[in-house]
Design goal:
By secondary structure, the chain is an alpha/beta fold. Helix content is 44%, strand content 16%. It has two domains: 210 residues, Rossmann fold; 162 residues, Glycogen Phosphorylase B (Rossmann fold, 3-Layer(aba) Sandwich), CATH 3.40.50.2000. Helix 3 packs parallel to helix 4, helix 4 packs parallel to helix 6 and helix 8 crosses helix 13.
Length: 410
């Protein structure tokens, strides 16, 4: 079965509000790349502070309300962190699931999609179950890692996923790390499908001899991104080499991280850029010397499921220094396209940064090899082929089930 005229409803906690939006940009990019198959897409996502539904790229985006405007930001900047730091958000989470379930059932009864793609199957698989059961719509579960790390910590989440997984007509993981976590709960077929670039790569800029080398960090400012450890490593680097760190992103720990920066006297060496446009982000990648992602396994047991920002850095021919945790090891070949260091180790981070700054030829070689590598392993043509296969298989399996339910009149 091909995807021509098939209607796929995508359930997700994050999706861009505009063409330049960064939240969930990889999901939008996958939909854009799949549109030439002839499939029709609809997105179902939570409202952000009472935002209305809209159309983006000819895709209807339903934003469901679940809370008063002030608290309607649960999925923004990391729900687990908000739940841990502000217990009042537990009520918002309960309303998110309950009201989301009702509204998803209403949207599905109105739109009659052929297939549901469920990103982050906890809690969205639970929310989609009534629509799938009552309306006979097959589901594909797409795991990103954080929901599975949550299952490691909370037995009830693991039990819910064990119950839901056999119902799905297809299961995907964004990395081999995430696939390994699924295997603890489920022994059925799992397809590893990563994500690719969400921006158009620019040619790398060569630094002028009088310019200070630039490090780049891109990501949400929360615990699992590990930016605090990079800041701690910075004085060790500055003791031997002048350097400038650009930080792109915002998050719940932004003020705490900025205070750390000030207390360490690093204001002249660190520039916080907040959210930037795709054009500006590409400029940042192209203009840096080294991309650094000091991710950790945080206090909630969460870590990087893949790390698309590293793929984007490699697309700009930049070497990557990152922690050897989660799905990062799927992206970076240590010693070939970058350097992997132990998590939460500022000294190892500093040594890796100095090693590449002192050997620009090696750094350039790593960047060039990184580009060649992602053009093969993380190309959208390969990724879309896998998504087409998963969606077609799920629809074919549902067709087989439906045909068995139809019995001839006796």
């Amino acid at each position: 079965m091909n995807l021509q005229d098939k209607h796929i409803l995508v359930v997700t906690s994050v999706y861009p509000m505009t063409a330049n939006g960064n939240h969930g940009a990889f999901i939008r990019e996958a939909i854009l790349r799949l549109q030439p198959t002839g499939a029709k897409f609809t997105v179902f996502a939570p409202a952000y502070e009472a935002c209305k539904s809209y159309v983006l790229d000819d895709v209807k985006v339903y934003r469901f309300r679940y809370c008063p405007k002030r608290f309607e930001n649960l999925a923004r900047d990391g729900a687990p962190t908000k739940l841990q730091r502000q217990p009042l958000y537990l009520l918002a989470a309960a309303l998110y699931i309950f009201l989301g379930t009702l509204q998803l059932l209403w949207v599905c009864s109105k739109q009659k999609p052929d297939l549901l793609q469920i990103h982050w199957p906890f809690p969205h698989g639970l929310m989609a179950l009534p629509a799938s059961f009552f309306l006979g719509i097959p589901m594909v579960f797409s795991f990103h890692g954080s929901e599975l790390m949550l299952a490691n910590k909370f037995g009830f989440v693991a039990n819910i996923l064990r119950w839901l997984l056999p119902i799905a007509k297809g299961v995907t993981a964004n990395s081999s790390f995430t696939c390994g976590l699924i295997r603890k709960l489920y022994d059925g077929p799992v397809t590893v499908i990563p994500y690719g670039l969400t921006i158009e790569a620019k040619p790398p800029k060569k630094r002028l001899s009088e310019e200070v080398p630039k490090l780049l960090f891109v990501g949400r400012l929360d615990e699992r991104k590990g930016l605090r450890y990079l800041l701690t490593a910075l004085p060790l680097v500055l003791a031997q080499q002048p350097v400038l760190l650009h930080v792109v992103g915002q998050g719940i720990l932004e003020q705490e991280i900025k205070l750390q920066c000030q207390s360490m006297g690093l204001e002249d060496h660190v520039k916080f850029l907040g959210f930037v446009s795709k054009e500006e982000l590409a400029d940042q990648y192209a203009g840096c010397d080294i991309f650094v992602l000091p991710a950790i396994v945080d206090s909630k047991g969460d870590t990087e499921g893949l790390g698309i920002v590293m793929i984007e850095a490699l697309a700009h021919q930049k070497p990557v220094i990152a922690s050897a945790v989660g799905g990062i090891v799927d992206v970076i070949q240590s010693g070939v396209t970058g350097l992997l260091v132990p998590e939460k180790d500022p000294e190892a981070l500093a040594q890796a940064i100095l090693k590449l700054l002192c050997d620009p030829v090696k750094a350039q070689e790593m960047g060039e090899k990184g580009l060649a590598d992602i053009q093969v392993r993380f190309s959208w043509s390969h990724i879309i082929f896998l998504w087409e296969y998963i969606f077609r298989t799920a629809l074919d399996n549902q067709l087989t089930v439906n045909s068995k339910l139809i019995t001839p009149n006796s």
